[in-house]
Write a structure and sequence with these properties.
The complex is a heterodimer.
Chain A lengths: L12 H14 L12 H8 L3 H13 L3 E4 L3 E4 L3 H26 L4 H21 L1
Antiparallel strand pairs in A: 1-2
Helix pairs in contact in A: 1-3, 1-4, 2-3
Chain B lengths: L2 E11 L4 E11 L3 E5 L6 H9 L6 E6 L2 E2 L4 H7 E4 L11 H9 L6 H11 L13 H13 L5 E5 L7 H16 L3 E5 L3 H7 L2 E6 L2 E7 H7 E8 L12 E8 L2 E7 L3 H8 L4 E7 L3 H10 L14
Parallel strand pairs in B: 3-8, 3-9, 6-7, 7-8
Antiparallel strand pairs in B: 1-2, 1-4, 4-5, 9-10, 11-13, 11-14, 12-13
Helix pairs in contact in B: 3-4
Classes of the chains: A mainly alpha, B alpha/beta.
């Protein structure tokens, strides 16, 4: 799993780590039973504060995405994929919401926004068909 | 949690200049504490007072529970310090520096120093004066870390260094923190501070204007871009503390702290407001806001534990 953090993008670093672990699980890059890097290892890799990584891991444990494996580290739980897919949908919904709010604020009528979305979706479909 | 350091009502008056003005702050051990401020804001003075290298004109300073005035030697034995301009005998070789400095510390210093020299890929037999700036900085860091100090103090350690050396410094700092030890970092590299700090303090002309947990600070500060409806640049009351404001044409840009969410919707639809954009600013933008804005009346001196 590759994690990338952008400290100045407005989202707290621990939250960026949480999201990326969840995305990695949702997209099957991390599977149940896989170990995540140790706090120290990931902190060094990302050159971020180890307390930040520890906080991200605590949140992931509280969310049942990670569980402690005695003596070895933290592993992805069996229920993680389902949870992470749901979280990903929620995150995408909230991003979509802010884009829609921006579109409304700029004065675009609702049906025009809908057709923009349809056009973009259609474009993605054709791209996928071609590849 | 034990206290890593504390300053209580510390003032330092040089002949005609007030370098520190009644500064009170402290932090528990095991954290990365970043000290920000312009050149001449008092960062180095504060560090030197903590180490007992300078006496304050008034107030008390302590490090690891030891009074800085009385126990300067003991403090320096237990603390690692990388000054902004490392003072090394430049006729010594890298090896000799470790041997020389090791004489001031308990046995084991030189062995660990040699490990660090190897880790940083420094040439052991080369004289300090023949080293590049980055290599010299790494020697200085090795000297400061070889006795495995409980507290590592770095005074602008990476200014003027290339990105690879800066990265190595950051990694070392992260490692020190991962072992539960404390780091005090005075720096102008705000993007680096944003990666590694638990706490951020800002000094402005000798006064402490901010001391806060970095995550909390970033949660509490937001930037509003307000576009007004007509040409009159009258801004309704903003539901929060405005740190800095700037007007360009019909747009205000505001840095706001502790915005009251419940009143924000009312603000958004106020009569002469056309639109409001909310954004989470970077630490650098927050820093600039604090430096340019009205002096903040009172800064908190105690911060809650992590």
């Amino acid at each position: 799993m590759f994690v990338h953090v952008d400290p100045s993008n407005g989202i707290a670093i621990y939250d960026q780590i949480v999201r990326q672990v969840k995305f990695a699980v949702a997209s099957d890059a991390l599977k149940p039973g896989n170990l995540v890097p140790s706090v120290r290892e990931l902190a060094r890799d990302l050159t971020v504060n180890p307390n930040t990584v520890a906080r991200a891991y605590r949140e992931l444990q509280a969310a049942n995405v990670l569980q402690a494996l005695r003596g070895t580290g933290l592993e992805i739980t069996a229920v993680a994929p389902k949870k992470c897919q749901a979280d990903r949908a929620a995150l995408i919904r909230s991003r979509l919401r802010s884009v829609l709010a921006e579109a409304r604020q700029s004065g675009l009528p609702a049906d025009e926004i809908r057709s923009l979305a349809d056009e973009e979706l259609g474009r993605l479909e054709t791209q996928r068909d071609q590849s | 949690m034990t206290e890593a350091f504390s300053l209580r009502n510390v003032t330092k008056q040089y002949k005609s200049q007030l370098a520190l003005d009644d500064v009170t702050c402290s932090c528990e051990s095991g954290v990365v504490f970043a000290l920000l401020g312009e050149n001449g804001a008092g960062k180095t003075t504060a560090i030197k007072i903590l180490l007992g290298l300078l006496d304050p004109s008034a107030g008390e300073a302590s490090v690891l529970g030891l009074d800085s005035r009385k126990h300067s030697l003991e403090i320096r034995r237990r603390v690692g310090y990388v000054p902004d301009q490392p003072a090394l005998y430049d006729w010594m070789t890298v090896d000799e520096v470790g041997w020389f400095v090791g004489g001031f510390y308990p046995p084991g210093y030189q062995r660990h120093y040699n490990e660090l020299v190897e880790h940083f890929e420094l040439p052991p037999g080369r004289r300090i004066k023949e080293l590049s700036k980055g290599m010299r900085a790494k020697v200085s860091l090795s000297v400061a870390m070889a006795h495995r100090p409980e507290l590592l103090i770095l005074d602008e350690p990476t200014s003027g260094l290339d990105p690879m050396v800066r990265r190595e410094f950051l990694e070392s700092m992260v490692d020190v923190a991962a072992q539960g030890r404390t780091v005090i970092l005075a720096s102008h590299q705000i993007a680096e501070v944003e990666r590694v700090a638990d706490y951020v303090a800002i000094l402005r002309q000798g006064k402490l204007v901010l001391l806060e947990q970095l995550d909390a600070l970033k949660d509490r500060v937001c930037e509003l871009t307000v576009t007004l409806r007509n040409g009159v640049p009258d801004l309704p009351n903003v539901p929060g503390t405005v740190l800095h404001r700037e007007l360009k044409g019909r747009q205000w840009r505001l840095l706001v702290r502790n915005m009251d969410e419940s009143q924000f919707d009312g603000f958004r639809i106020a009569e002469n407001i056309r639109s409001v954009e909310v954004r989470r600013p970077s630490l650098e933008e927050i820093f600039v806001g604090y430096m340019k804005g009205e002096p903040v009346p009172e800064a908190p001196s105690e911060v809650p534990a992590l």
